[in-house]
Each structure stands twice: as C-alpha cells, then as structure tokens.
Automatic annotation (TrEMBL):
<feature type="region of interest" description="Disordered">
    <location>
        <begin position="157"/>
        <end position="196"/>
    </location>
</feature>
<protein>
    <submittedName>
        <fullName>Replicase RepA</fullName>
    </submittedName>
</protein>
<keyword id="KW-0614">Plasmid</keyword>
<feature type="compositionally biased region" description="Polar residues">
    <location>
        <begin position="157"/>
        <end position="169"/>
    </location>
</feature>
<feature type="compositionally biased region" description="Basic and acidic residues">
    <location>
        <begin position="186"/>
        <end position="196"/>
    </location>
</feature>
C-alpha cells in the first residue's frame, strides 16, 4: 500500500518540481499574528483602491496627452523628489495587464514582470532620493504577476503587496479563531463574579461613559432650546421643527425632546405669511 503523499513526492522528483514543505509558524505571539493580519488587510484595501484608479484611468485613454508621464510611466510621489516606487511599479504592471487583455494578447508572467521592473526603474531613476534600489526578489515578482493577472481576469479584490502573502495560512486562521473563542470564554468567566475587581472596574467605566453621554445629550438639548428661544426673541416668530433639524443636523425626535425638556410648545398650524 502506497500513500498518496509518497506518490506525489516521487512525481515532483521526476518532474523537477520543488517538494512541498509545511509552512512554519511565522509569528511568536497571538498579538503579532493579529497585527500582521490587520496590516495585510490595510495593504489589500490600498492596492484595491489603486487598481480601481487604474481602471478609471484606462477608461479615459488620455495617456498620450499626459505631460506627467516619464517614459510612459505615471510616477507616484511620496514627497518632492521621492517616488513611491512599489506603488508606481504595481500600478504600471496592472495597467499593462489590462491593455494586454484588451488587445487579446497573452497576459504572461514575463510581460507583467517586465512592466513592473520598467516602472520601478523609472521611479528609482527619477525619484530614488538617495535610496538604493530595493527591487523585490524574482519569486515575489512572480507572485505579484499572478495576482495582477487574477485581478484583471476575475476582478479579484484581494490584491496585496508582492513582499508578503495576502492571505493567512490555514494554521493562522485556526489560531485567530481559537484566540477569539478563548477571549470570549475568558471575558464571560470574568463577568460571572460581579463583585470581582475586574467586573467592578469595568462597571465603573461603563457608568462613567453613560454619564458622559447623558451630559452630552443634555447639553445638546439645552443648546437647541436656547437657539429656538433666541430666534423667537429676535424675530418674533418661532422656528419650525424642520428648520431646527437643519440648523443642528439632528432628528425630529431629538428636537422634540429638547423642546419638551425646556417646556417650549411651538404654535400649531401653518405659519402666517406677511404680504
């Protein structure tokens, strides 16, 4: 009896492919893992916005009239004389891939990587600002090319940087899930004893927050009521609820509560208009 894993190992050896290696734990603590996932999400969101900008830019087809292009590349700037090299290169690679698809040509890794390298070198040459070139290694550039092609062909929205994987591994996702469950259980255990130091401290925080909200709400009611009375004293007519809502950007119920707490009753019926 032969295991499937052994068979796959032999096939990889025969075809010259790299053997599978189980991913190692990359993070020393749960907090480090959570921070890494947050960073990945922020990077993915940033590059998603960048990709959408590229699609909008392509739809206008105004590149030939753009005086800001350098060797066909729109260089993004962090500050005067300092270019955002990675963002510039990624944007140009994405634009190139869109154009290849529109022309019915193959979106190969080589074409996308060439575009990335060209744009990176342009940004380095004109906006290096004394920095050494930090071109990502070829393996990361190949990963970037696959993500760019995937985004263009399938409208994927999980594009991230080429320097790190965008998605957490299965082990990392399980760790995050476990930490979430354990955290919830731990919090529930702490709240069981309402006389404990933890529960009393948290209850005090909640009470303080509730008092602050109450003071803020009371201040808003007094401000609204004061404004309504001030308008009446200066103009001789009461402002409507709708006018008060617009003045303070609040709801009708908020205005009604403010008037009720101040004992103000607005006149009913339509307002009389002067000839």
């Amino acid at each position: 009896m032969r295991r499937l894993a052994d068979l796959l190992k032999e096939i990889r050896t025969m075809t010259g492919q790299e053997q599978y290696t189980k991913p190692r734990q990359q993070f020393s603590s749960g907090r480090e893992l959570i921070n890494a996932v947050k960073t990945r999400r922020e990077e993915a969101q940033a590059f998603k916005a960048l990709a959408q900008d590229v699609e909008t830019e392509l739809s206008t087809e105004l590149d030939q009239y753009d005086p800001e292009l350098i060797d066909g590349v729109r260089v993004l700037w962090i500050s005067q004389g300092r270019a955002a090299r990675d963002e510039t290169a990624f944007r140009y690679a994405l634009k190139t891939c869109h154009r290849l698809r529109a022309a019915g040509e193959r979106m190969t890794d080589a074409a996308i990587i060439d575009a990335y390298e060209h744009a990176y070198n342009v940004a380095q040459r004109h906006g290096g600002d004394g920095r050494d070139s930090e071109m990502p290694p070829m393996r990361d550039r190949q990963t970037m090319a696959r993500r760019v092609r995937g985004y263009v062909t399938q409208s994927k929205t999980d594009i991230g940087t080429s320097a790190s994987p965008v998605r957490a591994t299965s082990t990392e996702r399980k760790a995050l899930s476990t930490m979430g469950r354990r955290g919830g259980k731990k919090a529930a255990e702490r709240w069981k004893d309402r006389e404990s130091h933890y529960a009393q401290t948290e209850l005090e925080k909640l009470a303080d927050a509730s008092k602050k909200r109450a003071r803020k709400a009371k201040g808003t009611r007094l401000t609204i009521a004061g404004w309504v009375m001030n308008v009446e004293s200066e103009t001789g007519t009461w402002p409507t609820i709708a006018e008060t809502m617009v003045e303070f950007s609040v709801s009708r119920e908020t205005v009604k509560r403010a008037l009720r707490s101040a004992g103000i009753e607005l006149p009913r019926g339509r307002r009389k208009t002067s000839n």
